[in-house]
């Protein structure tokens, strides 16, 4: 048997196999991170919508359910600043029976725009409420 040909062939095969495993590892990691990012963004977008729908509206049981769901989603997927603002909004709600959600909504909007590679905006939030 000719070992002078076998050794380079085995080294080449080993490098190819190791390269495939390393590439697969990093590709899997990237796919997992992208999936986590997509899930986080979709939940925070829904939380943003639910908070926006509840802001500046009379309270009812449907709105409370959506607010509760939004608060839970923010607690699970939100940043530290969003969690701090959520806590402050909750404390204001407990003490005054209502709260202003603008700061939380602005923080969510800024974070989501950053995640989606959209330019930052300083435009104030505007709530449109159609009356029957």
Which consecutive residue ranges, at least 5 long each, have pLDDT under 50? none
Write the element-wise H/E pattern from the N-terminal end onward: HHHH
Question: Major sheet: size, sense and barrel closure?
Answer: none
Shape verdict: rod-shaped
Distance between the termini: 91 Å
Strand content: under 5%
Nearest-angstrom radius of gyration? 25 Å
Q: How many helices does DSSP assign?
A: 4
Fraction in helix: over 70%
Q: Please identify the structural class as seen in this structure.
A: mainly alpha
- Report the average pLDDT across residues: 89
Question: Count of DSSP E strands?
Answer: 0
How would you summarize the topology of this molecule?
Layout: H1 3-54, H2 61-77, H3 80-96, H4 102-115
Explain this structure to me?
The longest helix is centred in the first third of the chain and has 52 residues, at 3-54. The protein is an all-alpha fold and 132 residues long. The protein has helices spanning 3-54, 61-77, 80-96, 102-115. The protein is 76% helix and 0% strand.
């Amino acid at each position: 048997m000719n070992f002078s040909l076998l050794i380079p062939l085995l080294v080449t095969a080993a490098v190819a196999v190791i390269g495939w495993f390393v590439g697969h590892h990093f590709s899997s990691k990237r796919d997992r991170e992208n999936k986590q990012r997509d899930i986080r963004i979709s939940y925070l977008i829904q939380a943003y919508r639910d908070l926006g729908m509840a802001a500046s509206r009379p309270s009812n049981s449907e709105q409370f359910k959506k607010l509760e769901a939004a608060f839970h989603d923010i607690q699970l997927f939100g940043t530290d600043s969003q969690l701090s603002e959520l806590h402050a909004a909750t404390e204001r709600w407990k003490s005054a029976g209502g709260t202003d959600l603008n700061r939380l909504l602005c923080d969510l909007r800024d974070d989501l725009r950053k995640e989606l590679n959209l330019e930052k905006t300083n435009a104030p939030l505007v709530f449109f409420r159609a009356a029957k």
